[in-house]
Amino acid sequence: MKRIPAFAFAVLALLADATALGRATQDPQPARDISGFWELNFDSRRVPRANLLPSVTRGRLDARLKSDAYAIRWCNLLGVPFIMDSGRPLDIRQGTTAIMVVPENSSAPRYFYLNRSAHISDDIFDPSTNGDSIARWESDTLVVDTTGFHGEHGITAIPGGGFRTEKSRLVERYRLMKDGAVLSVTFTWTDPTVFRTPHWYEFRYYRLPSTYEPRQWLPCDPFDEERAKFLETTPKPGRPATRTVPKE
Amino acid sequence: MGARMVSAVVVLACVIAPAVRTQTPAAPGARLEGDWVRIDPDGVGSFDGLSGVVPAAELLPGVTGAGGGRGDGRGRGVPQSTGPNPEGVPYIVVTQPCSGFGGGRGNGGLLINPDSGGVHFVEHKDEVIFAGERGGVRHIYLDRRGHPDSSQRTPTPAGHSIGRYDGSTLIVETTGFTPGAVPGGGVRTPETRLVERFELSADSRRLTIVYTWQDPKIYQKPHVYRLYFERAPAVTSNGALVSYALEEWCDAGDPIEKQSIVPPKQTIRK
Questions:
Q1: Which long-range contacts does A26-34 make (Cβ < 8 Å, 24+ apart)?
Q2: Which candidate in A38, A75, A101, A106 is best for mutational testing of the B interface (most B CBs within 10 A)?
Q3: Is B77 on the interface with A (CB under 8 A)?
Q4: Does residue B204 sit at the A interface (CB-CB below 8 Å)?
Q5: Cβ distance B26 to B125 under 8 Å?
Q6: Chain-centre distance of CA B154, in angstroms?
Q7: Chain B nearest C-alpha distance from A192 (Å)
Q8: Number of residue pairs across A and B with CB atoms under 8 Å?
Q9: Domain residues of chain B, as ranges?
Q10: In a 3-state reduction of DSSP, which class is residue B52?
Q11: Confidence check on the interface: ipTM exceeds 0.85, yes or no
Q12: What digits encode the pLDDT tens for the residues B205-214?
């Protein structure tokens, strides 16, 4: 007889906790919704230098720089990681099956699939600049795992050094901070052909007002000769500035 | 007494339990979310045919239709009609420059009248993202904002869209377009208003987009037509059926992008 009220209290206590949790999730910025407009500020980046393998020579890095310049020159899809720091805000929207990350200056958004726990099989997935991303919540942190990158298309340079290849794997952890005003994203790259140790860095995005209007992608015309000339011509070294010393 | 208390607790638990499930940020009428591909319910058998079934716009006297033809909402370099393809040959084929003037695939302009590339929706309570595999994104705001003043906004190929749900139907109003062609021989200007109704079938497998173009300076009466879609076909991956967005590679240095997209088996309604 005594145990029944105790049991009842225990259940009710659990329900009270659960109800409080329910209220929390109904808040305007629920912990498990990273939707919003987000931008990086000058103090948003913590990027240590990557620990690269000896096989990542200056020659390989220079070749990558050239390939990245080609992608810009020809208005190609730019892909990850570039679009996470493209100079314009991101629009992130969380649905029931996927989360979409929409940059303002590249036409291909990222999809984080919430409705599957395995990557698309290699034999049917064509490597792409954004790769294949699957996501799951671990407490208040969204963990996104991405593979299936294209090794050459788009901008392959990774902040801190190195570049993505078809063997790259990226794990991102998204977590809201400061009552949803800040979104912390840690990026961890592993690649047995590029990095000696996993390469980690963090960006902190600031939330923009909900009334923000994303600017639509500016036209990119690969056949604009003036633009091509601007991008492809190496400037001649300028003469050092001369300073006229006033005569006494 | 004890049994009754236990029963009461169990009943209470059943009542409260649904309220404590994690809230999803989805829009209230959300069922549109997922992957879609355009279909050919009229059995016209060619991409040009798909556009050809759009009824002719009734323009005011003196208004000239852009593009001079019916149903041409596509980019430069689209080949002339070749008629229905032979049996077994995918008849929805896209061939066009990768990135034309005005941003080409960018800006979501292709999503006003989607072609054969797959399209995808993510529904959030404040915004629906409408994205296309051949590039571009449309932002459809559900947060009750209005259209920006036309003097404050540069017209774009996708315009500015605000939406609301009527049951499971998403109703979207768009204005602020760059001047251009409308399927059926119509035209549009930054003042032209487009209302789209994204109507789902009862089983959520079929999507009909009803387009209504309105502009008292252009049309004698609202210009209405429909495009039809089905859920994108799933593929088997690691033993599971999945559907996902393809990232169409586009290399302007090529310089002609060629894609051949095999649509799902077409259901002819005739």
A1: A26/B23, A28/A180, A29/A176, A29/A179, A29/A180, A30/B23, A30/B25, A31/A140, A31/A176, A32/A137, A32/A140, A32/A142, A32/B22, A33/A94, A33/B25, A34/A92, A34/A94, A34/A99, A34/A142, A34/A174, A34/A176, A34/A183
A2: A75
A3: no
A4: no
A5: yes
A6: 22
A7: 24
A8: 178
A9: 28-260
A10: helix
A11: no
A12: 999 999 999 9
Q: Which residues of A touch B6 (CB under 8 A)?
A: 4, 7-8
pLDDT of B106: 55
* Beta-carbon-side half-sphere exposure of residue B151 (alpha carbons within 13 Å): 0
Domain boundaries, chain A: 49-231
Using a CB–CB cutoff of 8 Å, tell me whether B60 touches chain A.
no
The Cα of A51 is separated from the nearest Cα of chain B by a number of Å equal to 31
- Alpha-carbon gap, residue A163 to A227, rounded angstroms: 26
Residues A83-95, mean pLDDT to the nearest whole number: 96
> Which of B9, B237, B250 minimises the CB distance to A8?
B9
Comparing C-alpha atoms, which of B261, B234, B118, B168 is closest to residue A115?
B234
The distance of A95 to chain B (nearest Cα, Å) reads 5
Q: How far, CA to CA in Å, does B70 sit from each of A66, B49, B185, B210, B216?
A: 44, 10, 5, 17, 20
* Tens of pLDDT, residues A192-211: 999 999 999 999 999 999 99
Chain B hits for A142, CB-CB cut-off 8 Å, are none
Question: Which residues in chain A have their CB less than 8 angstroms from residue B98's CB?
Answer: 75, 222
Phi-psi region at B3: left, alpha or beta (left = phi > 0; alpha = psi -120 to 50)? alpha
